[in-house]
Amino acid sequence: MAHCMSFLMVLLLLSFASFCFSHKINGGYLYPQFYDYSCPRAQEIVKSIVAKAVAREARMAASLLRLHFHDCFVKGCDASLLLDSSGSITSEKRSNPNRNSVRGFEVIDEIKSALEKECPHTVSCADILALAARDSTVLAGGPSWEVPLGRRDSRGASLSGSNNNIPAPNNTFQTILTKFKLQGLNIVDLVALSGSHTIGNARCTSFRQRLYNQSGNGQPDYSLDQSYAMQLRSRCPRSGGDQNLFFLDFVTPTKFDNHYFKNILASKGLLNSDQVLFTKSKASMELVKKYSENNELFFEQFAKSMVKMGNVSPLTDSKGEIRKNCRRINSY
Questions:
Q1: What are the C-alpha distances in Å from 196 to residues 27, 91, 164, 226, 306?
Q2: Beta bridge pairs of residue 29
Q3: Which one has a higher pLDDT value, 9 or 43?
Q4: Which of 23, 97, 154, 212 is disulfide-compatible with 166, CB 3.0–4.6 A?
Q5: 249 labelled as ligand-binding?
Q6: Containing H/E element for 175?
Q7: Which of 68, 70, 121, 259 does the annotation list as catalytic?
Q8: Domains, the chain, ranges and CATH?
Q9: What angle do CA 173, 102, 185 make, to 5 degrees?
Q10: d(CA 233, CA 242)
Q11: Would you say 307 is a known binding-site residue?
């Protein structure tokens, strides 16, 4: 009897621990242990495939991280971004922020295929995106965090939401902050999450206006270091070369660290949306300074803000579905 009672106490304590780490969202819970019984190897499988993909191409870490951002900012973290156009669905992949830009879908397909073999119809595409973002960050040398799980997949997409809600490189500081606030994120989240630009690339077309015509008066952006601007112009001409790629952080382009913030302090943020963090708001300027001086502080806040972003309006309980193929809704 005593053994039975102590076993029950252990079970109760474990349940309570899971509850403490869970996040109450729209009537449902997300918690890191969601697949511990239904698919115990889920996280291991995601990590292994992401590691192989990043080993093949270092840039893939940034690409997978970006997929999670662009998903969560449209209708919440529901894998709507992964849907191809079909029937009544117009894919978010066609939107201005995503067209010829977002990538990594084949890696998500490979993860989904492996998970369907391991535990069919169990792990959502939305959770795959959240886990792949975390694993990519860690592989690039960044912080780790426990990913709350239990999201379900949407049965639709929003092209207009994708066009309107995702912050653009040429948006004003206030517009970017407003877009973050619409997702329940604040200025601290904005600056910390912008730090993901410590890895990855941007196309010439996303910052050309800074080099030649920042305010529509034929003048460059003078908040951009002029020797750096001259280097950029050599491969980003006034016309042509739209798809030419440039490192977002030219100092440590594949290492997740706080050099992004140091670059901004030196007026060498690549995108307008990077540099305005320092030039257009005293509060964000102070955060840029703090993170540039303290890598650990940046890592800590980045992890917190990623969990917060991952909790934006997920589908839980009986809402949505668990897609068999991340590119299309299930047929019933």
A1: 30, 25, 21, 24, 10
A2: 24
A3: 43
A4: 97
A5: yes
A6: helix 173-181
A7: 70
A8: 41-200+248-311 (1.10.520.10)
A9: 35
A10: 12
A11: no
Q: What pLDDT, on a 0 to 100 scale, did the predictor assign at position 331? A: 87
User: Does 178 show up as a binding residue in the annotation?
Assistant: no
Q: Which of 31, 29, 63 is nearest to 135 (CA)?
A: 63
Cα–Cα distance, 63 to 55 (Å, whole number): 13
**Residue 70 is a catalytic residue:** yes
Helix (H, G, I), strand (E, B) or coil at 247: strand
Q: Which residues are CB-contacts of 232 (< 8 A; sequence separation ≥ 6)?
A: 207, 211, 246, 270
Q: How far apart are CA 54 and CA 127, in angstroms?
A: 19
Of 96, 100, 94, nearest to 81 by C-alpha is 94
What is the spatial distance between Cα 64 and Cα 105, in angstroms, rounded to a whole number? 8
Q: For residue 310, is pLDDT > 90?
A: yes
Residue 23's pLDDT is what?
61
Give the residue from 269, 266, 146, 267 showing the smallest Cα distance to 198: 269
